[in-house]
Design brief:
By secondary structure, this protein is an alpha/beta fold. The chain contains 7 helices and 9 strands; from the N terminus they run αβββαβαββαβαβαβα. The protein has a 9-stranded mixed β-sheet. The longest helix is centred in the last third of the chain and has 14 residues, at about 180-190.
Length: about 210
């Protein structure tokens, strides 16, 4: 991090910002929609297949004042806060400032940390390494389970039993094994139509 005192990050008035960019949402319920992504550094969940491992160490990313982050986000309508694991840090100051600008705010989270902030959409992507808290299941608008092997389909059903009945359910192949697991997912969704298939379309489109 830079010269901003760590205490300001602990309060959420500054955040370790890895990157921010405007793109097309590539996954889940809002796939295909334009959105401005704010990627916050810091995560200790430690998924071995994570494709943004550089986000794990918050010290690698400059502490940035929330006001600066919000100023850059103002031109856009939909904001997606992701990581890393954004709930590592207090999200109240960021979401309050974004809301003052009338923006729709989404979060992508593992649910492993207590919720903070005000969200219009919660995408819960649970991880076996560090299970979600009970409140995360209750808050989820969308459950997105990453499938690396056949056992993950069993685990996905266990997760689905914990969310609300109106939560949208998605199975998404882990990118590095997509050719192997996609047939499993397709067959599973056809047999269990409460689920939908999520594909990382942004990678096929070669965009962030």
């Amino acid at each position: 991090m830079n010269s901003i005192e760590p205490s300001f990050v602990e309060k959420g008035v500054a955040l370790p910002l890895m990157e921010a960019f405007y793109t097309i949402q590539g996954e889940g319920f809002h796939q295909g929609k334009a959105a401005y992504f704010i990627r916050v550094g810091g995560c200790d969940v430690g998924c071995h297949w994570c494709d943004v491992k550089e986000s794990w160490d918050p010290q690698r990313h400059p502490a940035t004042w929330v006001d600066e982050i919000v100023s850059a986000a103002q031109p856009y309508q939909t904001i997606v806060v992701t990581g890393g694991e954004p709930l590592t840090w207090p999200m109240g100051p960021l979401t309050e400032a974004l809301k003052k600008n009338g923006l729709a705010i989404h979060i992508e989270t593992s649910g492993a940390y207590p919720f903070s902030g005000h969200w219009d959409w919660v995408c819960l992507s649970p991880k076996k390494n560090k299970a979600p808290l009970a409140e995360a299941y209750a808050r989820a608008d969308e459950l997105k389970v990453i499938v690396y092997n056949k056992h993950d389909l069993i685990w996905a059903e266990e997760q689905a039993q914990k969310v609300n009945a109106d939560c949208h359910l998605y199975l998404q192949p882990e990118w590095s094994v997509r050719e192997k697991v996609m047939p499993l997912i397709v067959d599973y969704v056809m047999a269990h139509p409460k689920w939908k298939v999520s594909i990382q379309t942004h990678k096929y489109l070669n965009i962030p």
